[in-house]
Amino acid sequence: MTTAPAKRMSKADRREQLLETAMAMVREQGTDALSLGALAERAGVSKPIAYEHFGTRSGLLIALYRRIDERQAATAAQDFARTPKRLGDVARLMGASYMSCFRTAGPECHAIFAALKGDEEMERVQSELTAAYVEFYRGLLAPYAKVDDAELQRRCVAIIGAGEALSREMTHGRIDEADAAATMASLIEATLARA
After folding, report:
1. CA 150, 151, 155: angle at the middle one, nearest 5?
2. Hey, is 168 helix, strand or coil?
3. Residues with pLDDT less than 70, the chain
4. Confidence (pTM)
5. What is the pLDDT of residues 42-94, one digit of tens each?
6. CA angle 62, 102, 158 (to 5 degrees)
7. Count of Cβ atoms closer than 10 Å to residue 3 Cβ
8. What is the secondary structure of 54-123 as a DSSP string?
9. Integer Cα distance of 100 and 111 in angstroms
10. Nearest 5°: CA angle at 77, between 73 and 80?
């Protein structure tokens, strides 16, 4: 198959086009079908253009994961623009927001993360992103905490781990979104209630 000449785009627009195309490929065929060569062909650009943007397949998958994370962070920030005043309300909003983000991200999010397991760069990126979410959740929950800051931080790490596990179950259809959100909210309340 020959590729059509690439339409002239700014570097940022081209990167966005490549990420959109890559996400569609993951959605339709899974991560195993995603390579920089296959992406270039599907996007109608030369292989060097795909390599220039992402360097490696891991670089592409990490860019996709960061893109999903940026969208989730923006959605969460909107959800918490007016944080409720009671712990129960905050916990319910946290659970609902977390699961809604994963629903809108789709199963591609967990597939991309699974494809990057063991990748050193992804481990660094995952640590960075988790730290940002821990800080965000710590800020939301600090007014209700009956523990010191270090313990609150550890509990936020645990909440995020539980949320990830629940969202994976939801993504695979083993639990529905409302139940996953309610369970996460219950965990948050129980975690904060104990000194």
Report:
1. 120
2. helix
3. 1-7, 83, 195
4. 0.77
5. 999 999 999 999 999 999 999 998 998 888 888 888 888 876 778 999 999 99
6. 85
7. 13
8. HSSHHHHHHHHHHHHHHHHHHHHHHHTTT--SSHHHHHHHHHHHHHHHHHHH-THHHHHHHHTTT-HHHH
9. 17
10. 140
Q: Which residue has the tokens 């959109």?
A: 20
Angle (nearest 5°) at CA 83 between 77 and 88 = 120
Q: How far is CA 49 from the centre of its chain?
A: 26
The backbone torsions φ and ψ at residue 172, rounded to the nearest 5 degrees and listed phi first, read -85, 5
Q: What is the DSSP letter of 32?
A: G
Instruction: Report residue 162 as tokens.
Output: 């539980």
**Which one-letter amino acid corresponds to residue 23?**
M
Two structure tokens written together for 80: 């918490």
**What separation in angstroms does the CA of 147 have from each of 26, 64, 86, 194?**
42, 37, 17, 8
DSSP tag of 2: P
Element (H, E) at 18: helix 11-29
Q: Which residue has the tokens 């989730």?
A: 72
CA atoms within 13 A on the CB side of 76: 21
